[in-house]
TrEMBL record:
Protein topology in the membrane: Single-pass type I membrane protein
Protein name in the entry: Carboxypeptidase
Organism: Torulaspora globosa
EC number: 3.4.16.-
Chief subcellular location: Golgi
Database matches in Gene3D superfamilies: alpha/beta hydrolase
Family: Belongs to the peptidase S10 family.
One annotated GO biological process: proteolysis
Localization annotation: Golgi apparatus, trans-Golgi network membrane
Record flagged with keyword Endoplasmic reticulum: no
Length: 631
């Protein structure tokens, strides 16, 4: 009855709002390139367009593009945001975690590592002025503080669920990268406050987790990581003639932070700290006469690559010029329910959005992480280990400063795992990274990956979502913990089934020599049962029931194999209390400390490819920067 009332009220609101989910449906045949795909079962179900909501004295329209598995229902909904600020989330949809990539002809082709095969995912352009998101104001009005950005997102969310009321019952994951490290904790905090004001649990937003990729979360602490990280990776030597200037800039940053530790006149970020990365790029230029123009400067998003100066990564990734070509293809805008006549041509990042968001009132999102963690929401930080701008050291440094769950930083119960990914074609278990977990905070380092992890390794990046969703297997070898993810979850199921069969066979052998140890996964423990020792009839009965149970279990697996997860403990208990850790890490012993060097790990066959050296892309239509470009 309650759900009927909620549905009835949602229907009334939709009538007033004017748009239902069907109004946003996107026909695959209208997307260039998709008609060449013979198997329609691999083309996602899509919805896109503008979600309108009231601003203070204007109508704001956020552009979204939603992707769902065409054949399987998902009870999980991911909202994805790119950063900048001012960079379109179509980067995520068409360059990273989304179902498509765009070729040089501006046509879409399938991304085998798309996250939509694990959960429904919605890419949102925000704040106002980003991508295709606009307002009715004649004079452009941009959000100037994260509090305003958050208020607008919550209004968008309310309007979104008016058009997609069925999604209100789903588990929500907030995910994104880079400056989304600011957006996501603010959005999570607002959702928690929204829920606290509601008595009816059926209309609350069921936030489960926040996934932050190479996030800009603590500007000052992360700025202090640049110089030591650069020295550690050999990007600059202490013999560099300008090293003393860098060291002085580092000290000035530390001093200004120390001068505001009491909270007085504390700023969102300090210019003294922002100068460090600028000077580092300047002093590490290749000034030799034989250096190619596009090999002069470090790429801040992948320090193993080079770029022209002062771009230093702004021309990257190389597929970026294909995206505006895709959106400029006649008919694409209309297919996405956009007005090509009134909207500006798509460009990746808007510098005016960046310049407006000064955050004179808000403190960095790192201050919100402890309360989010203590509420029971999981936070997962995943980082490409080749990123410079949001490097591993900076992330781990601010984690060390966090107070949550009654303790500061990682505790002595921190669990560590080496992560391998099973390639479905070669069946090679390839080193993917390592995982650190404590309470409900998880850090994942992805080997040989940049600021945009999914652009480098789409299949491995989906493993990040699999780790959270328990689509992984665990092995403990000589006291070390290993996680295994896979392109195809059926492979993990078969692996787990084989192990169970082997275990059952071993137990059967043991039973022949020692009846006291008889038992399997589907029967009670009979080790100390006196009836077992005295009655052969009882044994026969139990064995018959076990055989029947095993057959039923086998048929169940065959019928529901795609939805069964290879988990260690029941995921439904994940959020039973505030201090509950993520379920895949429960009840495990603390692992052995890992050397973060990707050469460590199990001695398995690897099939990873080394990324080609970077070459500059033509700078057509890319005068705006990529993410975090205000050096």
């Amino acid at each position: 009855m309650l759900w009927y009332c909620v549905g009835w009220l949602a229907s009334i609101v939709v009538l007033v709002h004017g748009f239902t989910a069907s109004d946003y449906y996107v026909s695959p045949e209208l997307i260039p390139g998709l008609s060449a795909i013979d198997n329609e079962d691999v083309v996602p179900e899509m919805y896109a367009g503008h979600i309108a909501f009231d601003g203070d004295d204007e109508i704001i329209k956020y552009f979204f593009w939603k992707f769902c598995h065409p054949k399987q229902y998902s009870d999980t909904l991911v909202f994805w945001f790119n950063g900048g600020p001012g960079c379109s989330s179509m980067d995520g949809a068409l360059l990273e975690t989304g179902p498509f990539r765009i070729n040089s002809d501006g046509k879409a082709y399938l991304n085998p590592g798309s996250w939509h095969t694990r959960a429904d995912i919605v890419y949102v352009d925000q704040p106002v002025g980003t991508g295709f998101s606009t307002s009715s104001s004649e004079t452009p009005r941009y959000d100037n503080d994260l509090a305003m950005v958050t208020d607008h997102f919550m209004r968008f969310l309310d309007s979104y669920f008016q058009s997609f009321p069925d999604d209100l019952a789903k588990d929500i994951i907030l995910a994104g990268e880079s400056y989304a490290g600011q957006y996501l904790p603010f959005f999570a905090d607002a959702i928690m406050k929204h829920n606290a004001d509601l008595e009816d649990k059926y209309i609350k937003y069921d936030l489960k987790a926040v996934l932050i990729g190479n996030g800009w979360v603590d500007p000052n602490v992360q700025s202090l990581s640049y110089l030591p990280f650069a020295v550690e990776k050999g990007l600059i030597e202490k013999t560099n003639p300008h090293f003393s200037e860098l060291l002085r800039a580092h000290e000035e940053c530390q001093n200004v932070i120390n001068g505001h530790l009491d909270g007085s006149d504390q700023k969102f970020a300090y210019e003294e700290c922002e100068q460090i990365i600028t000077l580092l790029l300047k002093f590490t230029r290749d000034t030799s006469t034989d250096a190619a123009d596009d090999e002069v400067c470090l790429n801040v998003y992948d320090y193993t690559l080079r770029d022209s100066y002062p771009s230093c990564g702004m021309n990257w990734p190389i597929e970026l010029p294909n995206i505006p070509k895709f959106f400029s293809t006649p008919g694409v805008m209309e297919a996405l329910h956009l007005d090509a006549e009134t909207l500006p041509r798509w460009h990746e990042c808007d510098t005016e959005v960046l310049q407006a968001l000064k955050n004179l009132r808000s403190k960095p999102s790192v201050d919100l992480l402890p309360s989010i963690l203590e509420s029971g929401v999981d936070i997962l930080l995943f980082n490409g280990d080749h990123d410079l701008i949001c490097n591993n050291k900076g992330v781990l440094d601010y984690v060390d400063n966090l107070n949550w769950g009654g303790q500061k930083g990682w505790s002595d119960k921190k669990q560590i795992y080496q992560w391998y990914h099973l390639n479905s074609e070669s069946y090679a278990e390839e080193p993917a990274g390592y995982v650190e977990h404590d309470r409900n905070l998880t850090f994942i380092s992805i080997y040989n990956a940049s600021h945009m992890v999914a652009n480098d390794h789409s299949l491995v990046s989906r493993g990040v979502l699999d780790i959270y969703m328990n689509n992984v297997l665990l092995e403990v070898i000589e006291g070390e913990n290993f996680l295994l993810s896979a392109d195809d979850l059926d492979i993990l199921d078969e692996d787990e089934d084989d192990k169970k069969d082997s275990k059952e066979n071993d137990e059967t052998t043991d039973n022949e020599t020692d009846n006291e140890n008889y038992g399997d996964d589907s029967t009670p423990d009979l080790e100390n049962n006196k009836l077992f020792k005295k009655s052969k009839n009882f044994i026969v009965t139990i064995m018959s029931l076990s055989l029947f149970g095993a057959i039923c279990y086998y048929l169940y697996l065959k019928r529901f194999k795609r939805t069964r997860r290879a988990i260690l403990v029941d995921r439904t208990n994940r959020h039973d209390n505030q201090n509950k850790t993520v379920s895949w890490a429960d009840d495990l012993e603390t692992g052995t400390e890992l050397d973060p060097d990707q050469t460590q790990g199990r001695k398995f066959q690897t099939g990873g490819k080394k990324k080609n050296s970077y070459t500059r892309v033509p700078n057509t239509d890319l005068d705006e920067s990529f993410e975090l470009d205000d050096f």
